[in-house]
Amino acid sequence: MSEVCLFNPYDPAFLADPYTTYRTLLNQAPLFKLPADFLQRSLSDTDWCLSRYEDVSLALRDRRFVREWENAKPAQAQAEAAANPHPTPPPMLQTYFAGMNSMMLFRDPPAHTRLRTLVNKAFTPIAIESLRPRITDLVEYLLQPLTSGSQVDLISEFALPLPVMVIAEMLGVAVADRDLFKSWSLRIARSIDATLSDPQVLQEAAEAYRDLSAYLKDVIADHRRHPREDILTNLIRAEEDGERLNEQELLSSCIILLVAGHETTTNLIGNGFWTLHRHPDARELWREQPEWSTSAVEEILRFEPPVQRTMRYVSDTVQMGDVLLSRGDSVYLLLAAANRDPAVFANPDVFDITRKPNRHLSFAAGIHFCLGAPLARLEGEIALTRLAQSSLVVDSDVPLWRNMTVLRGLEALQAHAE
Ligand code: HEM
Predict the structure, then answer these.
(1) Does this complex have an ipTM over 0.90?
(2) Which CATH number is correct for 12-417, 1.10.630.10, 1.10.600.10, 1.10.150.240, 3.40.47.10?
(3) 3 state SS of 11
(4) pTM tops 0.90, yes or no
């Protein structure tokens, strides 16, 4: 590819520092058209990158922007697809695509509304706040062995196990199997990272989906025989206007909770502690005045978002500034760029845990606004307040970012207790 592309998530420099790219886009091309075929897995002929807060926010809230290609596909593409059908993928990949496409994140109303309403019952702010004592205990349990003084990896020993233990307990799956969830979940998350079009990544995700499904089917069967007080039992029982979740939806709802429920929160904790390492004054303020906890977590979410972007398809013509978006176009919504838009955030590149207001888009907005946001915020607040107060210090100034560009997180973070 000879053309220089202002937005190039394949460039290793982007992984190290995506924010320079976002600043260039905001300044020079807030509605940026990607070169043709730049993203190999795109279904659209035209792909746009939106970085301005106002545009990203509009696309997240406006019903002309949809998640299902079927609801945006131009008539011509339908005719072409009918004339030249794609080769049928192998059965395992078909099952994987069907499972992923039945997740609420990838559905439009009315299916989205039904799925979200049923799952949402377990995620009300009151239900989540009741988990505070348990999460605090888990934080102490995981931190205790890390304070001996020897070097530890905070990601594998703390930031990864905490969210997976919480969501496993909430769902009612065995916490002891958390290493299995971790590897299945990571492989599925990698396939969602749109920049990775490697067939091997897709194959591994499909295998992980198959194995996780087989595991969960047994757990679901056991919950049907022996109902208990957890989300899975509630989902099995859940009825909204007489409609239950079918088996496929039940399975994919559990899978999205397991995957979304820990890859992202792990990154919130890891990115958060890394950012505090880079800004010792902020850590000091947080340690001395823990009343800043809530706003500090919001600032970490704005400054180093665990989910850097999402996407939508355009289902109807939209005039955006000078640009006319057409049915069938896709738009990449750079949440992390919008969080640095100087039109909304004063000194956007400054990390300020006292920032108010802080209407970042790290949990998106509109109908797909992160369902797990209250849980992520609670886990982030408890874990990071405790880490800020601890004697743990980071041992390296060179971060090791995971090779993913939708989810941004550290592969490892070596630290020791002083
Ligand atoms: C949706 C971010 C934690 C479950 C989303 C979306 C974002 C996001 C940006 C919307 C994507 C879009 O509109 O295309 C995050 C971040 C988290 C986090 C940054 C942690 C810091 C969680 C947790 C759970 C969760 C802990 C559940 C246990 C979900 C679900 C959706 C979602 C189910 C789909 C909602 C829908 O389609 O209506 N998340 N998330 N997330 N998140 Fe989270």
Answers:
(1) yes
(2) 1.10.630.10
(3) coil
(4) yes
